[in-house]
């Protein structure tokens, strides 16, 4: 059929197809294979489908070993429907789940959750079931230095490149993080780490603080040095510089144990702040209406977490619903406008710690990594390229 159609028309048709169908199309003929795996086509397909209302959810179940379950839901008229389920390529170490840094352009960044064993960082595309292990950075669990780390993941739109930034703090004898940290950045286009510690980050990012990637920058909640106040630290993936954003007035302290963190609410930077009043927990959702303007912080709504909602915010849908994880292992969606709670049919493990094993973020199917080769040192220390094969077919459920 493509012999009788202009190439531009063929590309326009194919860019509108879901990833699973495109993988099948790549087997039709060589010309379609080279078209589907072409970087310019992958970018065009991503830009065409980046507004699909999909939601990626991770949950954990614990029996003999921790098992992670990944699902994608499609939101239609604020109703979440099954879309796809995925198998993960790598499981956690020492019966622990992986921590998810974030999801961007169809890639999910995962890393080892254990503080002193956090060497392995993975980029994974669930839609095509391909993953790559990033090269080991200089400071690892085998180093003599005890450390804690924070990871950032995002996209540099100037160079069409995915990047991972790793911020490593040495620990003193009391287990406290000591600035300045070592900062290294990984670029998917080069496949290598670069040291950018000369940037001199003075803040201490809260340990394992979740990131929020928007406006080309990763954001974390951080300690503002000796002032014992809190700020939001940003790292711009394109300029490769750190920035600082003030938190809303009245938010003097942040408690990671309660679940305080930054997030992306629709297309805006948000701050989730939990207030302990003594007899109940109140979740305050703040949103920065104009990015980079602290005076534009607006408190959208307060939610009483002492009732059915539990006390841990998992994330937001693209339509603005708030997702909560409960100690009972249930995942709930709350519509702040209708003040309606919906039970999502997923079930995770029980307990206070497992609420951190829940993860939710808006998701975009993509072909990124479809032709990516991973660099892996051989016994002689040289690098050799190898391609990760497609794994089992996707398990797709209809809504």
Describe this structure in words.
- With 399 residues, this protein is mainly β.
- It has a domain at 1-49.
- Helix content is 8%, strand content 45%.
- It is built from 4 helices and 28 strands.
- It has helices spanning 7-14, 19-25, 30-36, 39-49, and strands spanning 54-62, 66-76, 79-86, 99-104, 107-111, 121-125, 130-133, 147-156, 161-171, 177-187, 192-195, 204-205, 212-214, 217-223, 230-236, 241-246, 261-265, 268-276, 281-288, 297-304, 312-316, 322-325, 330-335, 340-347, 359-363, 373-377, 383-387, 395-396.
- The strands form 7 sheets. It has a 5-stranded antiparallel β-sheet with strand order 25-1-2-3-28, with no helix packed on it. Strands 12, 13, 14, 15 and 16 form a 5-stranded antiparallel β-sheet that branches.
- The protein is globular and about 70 Å long.
- The protein starts with 6 loop residues before the first helix and ends with a strand.
> Mean pLDDT, rounded to whole units?
79
Structural class: mainly beta
First-to-last CA distance = 31 Å
The portion of residues assigned to helices is under 10%
Rg, Å, rounded: 21 Å
Instruction: State the total count of DSSP E strands.
Output: 28
Instruction: Report the biggest beta sheet as strand number plus sense, adding barrel if it closes.
Output: 5 strands, antiparallel
Instruction: Flag low-confidence runs.
Output: 373-399
Sheet with most strands: strand arrangement: 25-1-2-3-28
Number of helices: 4
Kindly estimate the percentage of residues that lie in beta strands according to DSSP: 35-45%
